[in-house]
Amino acid sequence: MYNNAAKYSKLIKDEALRLGFMQCGIAKAGFLEEEAPRLENWLKNQHHGQMAYMENHFDKRLDPRLLVEDAKSVISLTLNYFPVEQQSDPNAPKISKYAYGADYHTVIKDKMFQLLNFINEQIGAVSGRAFVDSAPVLDRAWAKRAGIGWVGKNSNIISKKSGSFFFLAELIVDLDLEYDAPFATDHCGTCTKCIDACPTDAILSPFVIDANKCISYLTIELREEIPATFGNQMENWMFGCDICQDVCPWNRFSAPHTEPAFEPNAQLLQMKREDWLDITEDVFKQIFKHSAVKRTKFKGLTRNIDFIKQLPAAEGKC
Protein backbone atom coordinates (compact mmCIF):
# COMPACT_ATOMS: atom_id res chain seq x y z
CA MET A 1 0.00 0.00 0.00
CA TYR A 2 2.86 2.39 0.86
CA ASN A 3 4.43 2.06 -2.57
CA ASN A 4 1.10 2.62 -4.24
CA ALA A 5 0.40 5.61 -2.02
CA ALA A 6 3.76 7.17 -2.91
CA LYS A 7 3.25 6.43 -6.60
CA TYR A 8 -0.27 7.83 -6.64
CA SER A 9 0.79 10.95 -4.72
CA LYS A 10 3.53 11.71 -7.24
CA LEU A 11 1.11 11.21 -10.13
CA ILE A 12 -1.39 13.60 -8.55
CA LYS A 13 1.20 16.25 -7.70
CA ASP A 14 2.75 16.15 -11.17
CA GLU A 15 -0.65 16.52 -12.81
CA ALA A 16 -1.63 19.36 -10.46
CA LEU A 17 1.48 21.29 -11.48
CA ARG A 18 0.80 20.54 -15.14
CA LEU A 19 -2.69 21.99 -14.73
CA GLY A 20 -1.17 25.22 -13.47
CA PHE A 21 -1.44 24.86 -9.70
CA MET A 22 1.51 26.40 -7.87
CA GLN A 23 1.71 23.94 -4.98
CA CYS A 24 0.12 20.64 -4.06
CA GLY A 25 0.32 19.07 -0.63
CA ILE A 26 -1.52 16.12 0.87
CA ALA A 27 -2.79 15.54 4.42
CA LYS A 28 -4.55 12.64 6.10
CA ALA A 29 -8.27 13.32 6.50
CA GLY A 30 -9.29 13.56 10.13
CA PHE A 31 -10.70 15.74 12.87
CA LEU A 32 -9.08 19.18 13.24
CA GLU A 33 -8.65 19.04 16.98
CA GLU A 34 -6.55 22.21 17.37
CA GLU A 35 -8.89 24.32 15.25
CA ALA A 36 -12.10 23.34 17.07
CA PRO A 37 -11.75 25.66 20.11
CA ARG A 38 -10.40 28.51 17.94
CA LEU A 39 -13.39 28.35 15.62
CA GLU A 40 -15.80 28.08 18.54
CA ASN A 41 -14.32 31.15 20.27
CA TRP A 42 -14.24 33.16 17.04
CA LEU A 43 -17.94 32.50 16.47
CA LYS A 44 -18.83 33.04 20.14
CA ASN A 45 -17.19 36.48 20.03
CA GLN A 46 -19.21 37.39 16.92
CA HIS A 47 -16.04 38.03 14.93
CA HIS A 48 -17.74 36.61 11.83
CA GLY A 49 -20.06 39.63 11.59
CA GLN A 50 -23.11 38.96 9.42
CA MET A 51 -21.58 35.89 7.79
CA ALA A 52 -24.18 33.63 9.38
CA TYR A 53 -23.15 30.76 7.12
CA MET A 54 -19.97 30.44 9.20
CA GLU A 55 -22.14 29.15 12.05
CA ASN A 56 -23.55 26.37 9.89
CA HIS A 57 -22.09 22.87 9.59
CA PHE A 58 -19.71 23.34 12.53
CA ASP A 59 -18.86 19.63 12.68
CA LYS A 60 -18.28 19.39 8.93
CA ARG A 61 -15.84 22.30 9.05
CA LEU A 62 -13.73 20.30 11.46
CA ASP A 63 -13.94 16.85 9.90
CA PRO A 64 -13.81 16.26 6.10
CA ARG A 65 -14.98 12.71 6.60
CA LEU A 66 -18.44 14.21 7.15
CA LEU A 67 -18.25 15.83 3.71
CA VAL A 68 -16.95 12.86 1.73
CA GLU A 69 -17.89 9.34 2.78
CA ASP A 70 -14.87 7.29 3.78
CA ALA A 71 -12.54 10.23 3.07
CA LYS A 72 -8.88 9.31 3.44
CA SER A 73 -6.95 12.28 2.06
CA VAL A 74 -7.19 16.04 1.68
CA ILE A 75 -5.29 17.32 -1.35
CA SER A 76 -4.49 20.98 -0.79
CA LEU A 77 -3.80 23.14 -3.84
CA THR A 78 -2.68 26.71 -4.44
CA LEU A 79 -3.11 28.87 -7.53
CA ASN A 80 -1.13 32.07 -7.97
CA TYR A 81 -3.03 35.29 -8.77
CA PHE A 82 -0.33 37.94 -8.33
CA PRO A 83 -0.73 40.30 -11.32
CA VAL A 84 1.89 41.71 -13.68
CA GLU A 85 0.17 45.09 -13.77
CA GLN A 86 -1.95 46.97 -11.28
CA GLN A 87 -4.42 49.84 -11.52
CA SER A 88 -2.69 52.75 -13.26
CA ASP A 89 -4.33 55.67 -11.43
CA PRO A 90 -3.05 55.83 -7.82
CA ASN A 91 -6.10 57.93 -6.92
CA ALA A 92 -8.66 55.48 -8.32
CA PRO A 93 -10.81 53.44 -5.92
CA LYS A 94 -8.99 50.13 -5.46
CA ILE A 95 -9.90 46.52 -6.19
CA SER A 96 -8.17 43.59 -4.52
CA LYS A 97 -5.71 41.91 -6.89
CA TYR A 98 -7.50 38.57 -6.70
CA ALA A 99 -10.51 40.09 -8.48
CA TYR A 100 -8.71 41.56 -11.50
CA GLY A 101 -9.48 38.59 -13.74
CA ALA A 102 -12.11 35.88 -14.10
CA ASP A 103 -13.94 34.55 -11.05
CA TYR A 104 -11.49 32.22 -9.33
CA HIS A 105 -14.24 29.82 -8.23
CA THR A 106 -14.93 28.88 -11.85
CA VAL A 107 -11.28 28.76 -12.91
CA ILE A 108 -10.12 26.61 -10.01
CA LYS A 109 -13.07 24.22 -10.00
CA ASP A 110 -12.51 23.51 -13.68
CA LYS A 111 -8.89 22.57 -12.97
CA MET A 112 -9.90 20.47 -9.97
CA PHE A 113 -12.46 18.52 -11.96
CA GLN A 114 -9.74 17.85 -14.51
CA LEU A 115 -7.51 16.60 -11.71
CA LEU A 116 -10.25 14.35 -10.31
CA ASN A 117 -10.91 12.93 -13.77
CA PHE A 118 -7.19 12.27 -14.14
CA ILE A 119 -7.16 10.40 -10.83
CA ASN A 120 -10.05 8.23 -11.94
CA GLU A 121 -8.42 7.50 -15.29
CA GLN A 122 -4.93 6.77 -13.98
CA ILE A 123 -5.63 5.20 -10.59
CA GLY A 124 -9.17 3.86 -10.70
CA ALA A 125 -12.59 4.67 -9.36
CA VAL A 126 -12.10 7.29 -6.67
CA SER A 127 -14.86 9.27 -4.98
CA GLY A 128 -14.09 12.86 -4.16
CA ARG A 129 -15.33 16.43 -3.95
CA ALA A 130 -13.72 19.71 -4.89
CA PHE A 131 -13.97 22.71 -2.58
CA VAL A 132 -13.11 26.31 -3.41
CA ASP A 133 -13.85 28.83 -0.68
CA SER A 134 -17.61 28.27 -0.75
CA ALA A 135 -18.10 25.20 1.44
CA PRO A 136 -17.53 24.29 5.10
CA VAL A 137 -13.80 23.51 4.77
CA LEU A 138 -11.08 25.21 6.82
CA ASP A 139 -8.72 25.62 3.89
CA ARG A 140 -5.90 27.32 5.79
CA ALA A 141 -5.80 24.54 8.38
CA TRP A 142 -5.53 21.93 5.65
CA ALA A 143 -2.91 23.92 3.73
CA LYS A 144 -0.79 24.02 6.87
CA ARG A 145 -1.31 20.30 7.50
CA ALA A 146 -0.34 19.56 3.90
CA GLY A 147 2.94 21.45 4.23
CA ILE A 148 1.99 24.40 2.01
CA GLY A 149 2.94 27.08 4.55
CA TRP A 150 2.19 28.61 7.93
CA VAL A 151 -0.68 30.80 9.10
CA GLY A 152 0.53 34.40 9.25
CA LYS A 153 -0.53 36.95 11.82
CA ASN A 154 -3.03 38.29 9.26
CA SER A 155 -4.52 34.75 9.15
CA ASN A 156 -3.37 34.13 5.54
CA ILE A 157 -1.32 31.09 4.58
CA ILE A 158 2.22 32.21 3.76
CA SER A 159 4.69 30.23 1.69
CA LYS A 160 8.43 30.80 2.00
CA LYS A 161 8.73 30.37 -1.77
CA SER A 162 5.88 32.53 -2.99
CA GLY A 163 4.38 34.72 -0.26
CA SER A 164 0.58 34.75 0.09
CA PHE A 165 -0.99 36.04 -3.13
CA PHE A 166 -2.57 32.70 -4.04
CA PHE A 167 -5.92 30.95 -3.81
CA LEU A 168 -6.48 27.83 -1.73
CA ALA A 169 -8.58 24.84 -2.73
CA GLU A 170 -9.09 21.28 -1.54
CA LEU A 171 -9.87 17.96 -3.17
CA ILE A 172 -11.11 15.46 -0.60
CA VAL A 173 -10.87 11.85 -1.78
CA ASP A 174 -11.44 8.31 -0.47
CA LEU A 175 -7.93 7.27 -1.49
CA ASP A 176 -4.95 6.51 0.74
CA LEU A 177 -1.97 8.62 -0.27
CA GLU A 178 1.47 9.52 1.00
CA TYR A 179 1.10 12.45 3.40
CA ASP A 180 3.29 15.51 3.59
CA ALA A 181 4.69 16.73 6.88
CA PRO A 182 2.67 19.60 8.38
CA PHE A 183 4.28 23.03 8.19
CA ALA A 184 5.32 23.34 11.81
CA THR A 185 7.40 26.53 11.84
CA ASP A 186 6.11 30.10 12.09
CA HIS A 187 8.34 32.39 10.05
CA CYS A 188 6.63 35.66 10.99
CA GLY A 189 8.84 36.02 14.04
CA THR A 190 8.46 39.36 15.79
CA CYS A 191 7.20 41.13 12.64
CA THR A 192 3.90 42.99 13.14
CA LYS A 193 3.74 44.91 9.85
CA CYS A 194 0.32 43.52 8.91
CA ILE A 195 -1.14 44.35 12.32
CA ASP A 196 0.36 47.84 12.31
CA ALA A 197 -0.76 48.63 8.75
CA CYS A 198 -4.42 47.62 9.10
CA PRO A 199 -6.26 50.98 9.15
CA THR A 200 -9.34 49.58 10.88
CA ASP A 201 -7.48 47.50 13.49
CA ALA A 202 -9.21 44.37 12.24
CA ILE A 203 -6.31 42.12 13.32
CA LEU A 204 -7.13 41.95 17.01
CA SER A 205 -4.11 39.81 17.80
CA PRO A 206 -1.94 37.42 15.81
CA PHE A 207 -4.21 35.03 13.87
CA VAL A 208 -7.46 36.61 15.13
CA ILE A 209 -9.44 38.74 12.67
CA ASP A 210 -12.58 40.66 13.56
CA ALA A 211 -14.53 40.59 10.29
CA ASN A 212 -16.71 43.44 11.52
CA LYS A 213 -13.70 45.74 11.10
CA CYS A 214 -12.13 44.17 8.00
CA ILE A 215 -12.28 46.28 4.83
CA SER A 216 -12.79 43.15 2.70
CA TYR A 217 -15.80 42.23 4.80
CA LEU A 218 -17.18 45.77 4.78
CA THR A 219 -16.94 46.07 0.98
CA ILE A 220 -18.07 42.54 0.03
CA GLU A 221 -19.93 40.66 2.76
CA LEU A 222 -21.74 43.48 4.57
CA ARG A 223 -25.16 44.01 3.00
CA GLU A 224 -26.25 47.11 4.91
CA GLU A 225 -24.66 50.53 4.88
CA ILE A 226 -21.01 50.74 5.91
CA PRO A 227 -20.85 52.30 9.39
CA ALA A 228 -19.86 55.96 9.33
CA THR A 229 -17.10 55.27 11.85
CA PHE A 230 -15.04 53.78 9.01
CA GLY A 231 -15.32 56.94 6.91
CA ASN A 232 -11.67 57.91 7.22
CA GLN A 233 -10.25 54.40 7.40
CA MET A 234 -11.12 52.71 4.09
CA GLU A 235 -7.95 53.89 2.33
CA ASN A 236 -9.77 54.05 -1.02
CA TRP A 237 -10.69 50.35 -1.22
CA MET A 238 -13.96 49.69 -3.05
CA PHE A 239 -13.72 45.88 -3.32
CA GLY A 240 -11.62 43.83 -0.95
CA CYS A 241 -8.32 44.93 0.53
CA ASP A 242 -4.67 43.91 0.09
CA ILE A 243 -3.03 46.05 2.75
CA CYS A 244 -1.96 43.26 5.12
CA GLN A 245 -0.48 41.32 2.19
CA ASP A 246 1.13 44.31 0.48
CA VAL A 247 3.18 45.08 3.60
CA CYS A 248 4.15 41.46 4.30
CA PRO A 249 7.92 41.00 3.75
CA TRP A 250 7.37 37.48 2.44
CA ASN A 251 5.50 38.86 -0.55
CA ARG A 252 8.75 40.15 -1.99
CA PHE A 253 8.90 36.61 -3.36
CA SER A 254 5.57 36.93 -5.18
CA ALA A 255 5.97 36.33 -8.91
CA PRO A 256 3.38 37.13 -11.62
CA HIS A 257 0.86 34.40 -12.33
CA THR A 258 0.72 32.55 -15.65
CA GLU A 259 -3.04 31.88 -15.70
CA PRO A 260 -4.65 33.44 -18.82
CA ALA A 261 -8.07 33.56 -17.13
CA PHE A 262 -6.69 35.91 -14.50
CA GLU A 263 -5.55 38.49 -17.02
CA PRO A 264 -7.47 41.66 -16.15
CA ASN A 265 -9.78 43.60 -18.39
CA ALA A 266 -7.48 46.35 -19.73
CA GLN A 267 -10.24 48.90 -19.22
CA LEU A 268 -10.32 48.06 -15.50
CA LEU A 269 -6.65 48.89 -15.01
CA GLN A 270 -6.84 52.12 -17.01
CA MET A 271 -9.93 53.62 -15.41
CA LYS A 272 -9.31 56.93 -13.67
CA ARG A 273 -10.79 58.02 -10.37
CA GLU A 274 -13.47 60.08 -12.12
CA ASP A 275 -14.41 57.08 -14.31
CA TRP A 276 -15.15 55.04 -11.22
CA LEU A 277 -17.08 57.83 -9.56
CA ASP A 278 -19.33 58.05 -12.64
CA ILE A 279 -19.51 54.33 -13.45
CA THR A 280 -22.75 53.15 -15.08
CA GLU A 281 -24.39 49.78 -14.75
CA ASP A 282 -23.59 49.00 -18.40
CA VAL A 283 -19.89 49.62 -17.81
CA PHE A 284 -20.04 47.54 -14.63
CA LYS A 285 -21.54 44.60 -16.54
CA GLN A 286 -18.98 44.94 -19.31
CA ILE A 287 -15.90 45.06 -17.09
CA PHE A 288 -16.99 42.52 -14.49
CA LYS A 289 -18.88 40.09 -16.73
CA HIS A 290 -16.83 37.11 -15.55
CA SER A 291 -15.41 38.61 -12.36
CA ALA A 292 -15.85 37.85 -8.68
CA VAL A 293 -16.77 41.54 -8.30
CA LYS A 294 -20.23 40.59 -9.59
CA ARG A 295 -20.83 39.31 -6.08
CA THR A 296 -21.42 42.84 -4.83
CA LYS A 297 -23.69 43.67 -7.77
CA PHE A 298 -23.70 47.18 -9.23
CA LYS A 299 -25.60 48.51 -6.24
CA GLY A 300 -23.03 47.18 -3.79
CA LEU A 301 -20.03 48.51 -5.67
CA THR A 302 -21.54 51.97 -6.07
CA ARG A 303 -22.40 51.95 -2.36
CA ASN A 304 -18.71 51.40 -1.66
CA ILE A 305 -17.63 54.06 -4.14
CA ASP A 306 -20.09 56.57 -2.71
CA PHE A 307 -18.76 55.85 0.76
CA ILE A 308 -15.11 56.46 -0.10
CA LYS A 309 -15.47 59.26 -2.68
CA GLN A 310 -15.91 61.80 0.09
CA LEU A 311 -12.28 61.22 0.99
CA PRO A 312 -9.50 63.35 -0.53
CA ALA A 313 -7.77 61.76 -3.53
CA ALA A 314 -4.63 59.74 -2.79
CA GLU A 315 -5.44 59.42 0.92
CA GLY A 316 -4.11 56.27 2.48
CA LYS A 317 -0.99 54.19 2.98
CA CYS A 318 -1.32 51.78 0.07
From TrEMBL:
Cite the active-site annotation: 133
Q: Which residues bind cob(II)alamin?
A: 61, 133, 154, 157, 168, 216, 241-242
Which reaction is catalysed here?
epoxyqueuosine(34) in tRNA + AH2 = queuosine(34) in tRNA + A + H2O
Signal peptide range equals none
GO MF annotations for this entry?
A: 4 iron, 4 sulfur cluster binding; cobalamin binding; epoxyqueuosine reductase activity; metal ion binding
Q: What is its EC number?
A: 1.17.99.6
* Keywords carried by this UniProt record: 4Fe-4S, Cobalamin, Cobalt, Cytoplasm, Iron, Iron-sulfur, Metal-binding, Oxidoreductase, Queuosine biosynthesis, tRNA processing
Q: How is the cofactor bound, in the record's words?
A: Binds 2 [4Fe-4S] clusters per monomer.
Domain 4Fe-4S ferredoxin-type positions: 179-207
Q: What cellular component terms from Gene Ontology apply here? A: cytoplasm
The pathway noted for it is: tRNA modification; tRNA-queuosine biosynthesis
Looking up Pfam families in the UniProt record yields: Fer4_16, QueG_DUF1730
Hey, which family's this protein in? Belongs to the QueG family.
Q: Which HAMAP family match?
A: QueG (MF_00916)
| Assembly and interaction partners | Monomer.
Please report the name of this protein according to its UniProt entry: Epoxyqueuosine reductase
